[in-house]
Specification:
Blueprint (H helix, E strand, L loop, with lengths): L11 E2 L2 H11 L6 E5 L7 H5 L4 E5 L6 H7 L6 E4 L15 E6 L5 H9 L5 E9 H8 L9 H9 E9 L4 E2 L6 E8 L7 H16 L5 H5 L6 H5 L13 H10 L1
Parallel strand pairs: 2-3, 2-5, 3-4, 5-6
Antiparallel strand pairs: 1-8, 6-9, 7-9
Helix pairs in contact: 4-6, 6-10, 7-10
The site of S-adenosyl-L-homocysteine has 23 residues, from strand 1.
Length: 253
């Protein structure tokens, strides 16, 4: 048994029921290409691989690589990379992929932000995450947990929370509850690159001071009359601004 690393967020699934439940939701098909983030010892990867066309595994822990090599010994259409997903270059991928992963929770928001940038290459995403992060991802305006993560994920993806998972199905047990989500990219909601950049910028700036009214965080960036024209009250805090309103503000600029 290998020593598991807390630093790498290693909580491995060991319950066949949960693997089956995940696969039932993912519905992998024969002609599809998948990429798995953090495959660990391959407990999900192997049954997934048996149902699909090709699989890319990105695992940071080099000690797990020989185990994965053995699981997939002599198999075709499998690529195992000993890499940090945050440094992985998705440019190399030419086909549309489905992404799956029981994520290392300590870097899950960074992984989500990385995925946003390549949403046009993705068919869909299935992630196991800390429940609290899932709640933030799907939060709606007027809630304390609605923030930059919610807006950025929701502008790129249609997101569905599928089910919650108890710590008992992992080894070692995490201290937190988990949840499983499905994310399907929208056709882009931006008119052009400038619009997209402006959206990033506005969302970042306003939520960096989430206690301040948007008129004070945005005054250097725009003529506040634009907000009135868009029917957006400039005295609101960003947690009241919907994704559509952020899209409208950035478009007007
Ligand atoms: N999928 C496995 C393991 C999940 S635990 C299972 O469900 O049992 C999270 C996995 O992500 C671990 O294998 C860990 O080594 C790996 N990991 C952690 N940080 C990573 C990173 N930056 N890039 C790729 N993999 C990473």
């Amino acid at each position: 048994m290998i020593q598991l690393k807390k630093r790498l967020g290693q909580h491995f699934l060991h319950d066949k029921n949960i693997i089956n439940k995940i696969l039932k939701h993912v519905k992998p098909e024969k002609n599809q290409h998948f990429l798995e983030i953090g495959p660990g010892n391959g407990i999900l990867s192997k049954p997934l691989y048996n149902k699909i066309k090709s699989l890319i595994l990105i695992e940071k822990d080099k000690k797990l690589i020989p185990i994965l090599d053995q699981v997939f010994y002599n198999q075709k259409n499998i690529n195992i990379y000993n890499k940090d997903i945050l440094k992985y270059n998705f440019e190399n991928i030419s086909k549309k992929i489905r992404i799956i992963g029981n994520l290392p929770y300590n870097i899950s928001t960074e992984i989500l932000f990385k995925i946003l940038n390549i949403s046009e290459k993705i068919i869909d995403v299935h992630f196991m995450l800390q429940k609290e992060v899932v709640d933030r991802i799907i939060a709606k305006p007027n809630s304390k947990i609605y923030g930059r993560l919610s807006v950025m994920c929701q502008v790129y993806f249609n997101i569905e929370k599928l089910f919650e998972i108890s710590p008992n199905v992992f080894y070692p047990k995490p201290k937190v509850q988990s949840a499983y989500i499905k994310m399907i990219p929208y056709q882009t909601r931006f008119h052009n690159n400038k619009h997209e950049k402006m959206f990033y910028d506005i969302v970042k700036t306003t939520f960096e001071s989430r206690r301040k009214m948007i008129k004070s965080t945005l005054k250097d960036k725009m003529d506040l009359k634009i907000l009135e024209k868009l029917n957006i009250n400039p005295n609101q805090r960003p947690e009241k601004i919907s994704v559509d309103d952020f899209l409208n503000i950035s478009k007007a600029l």
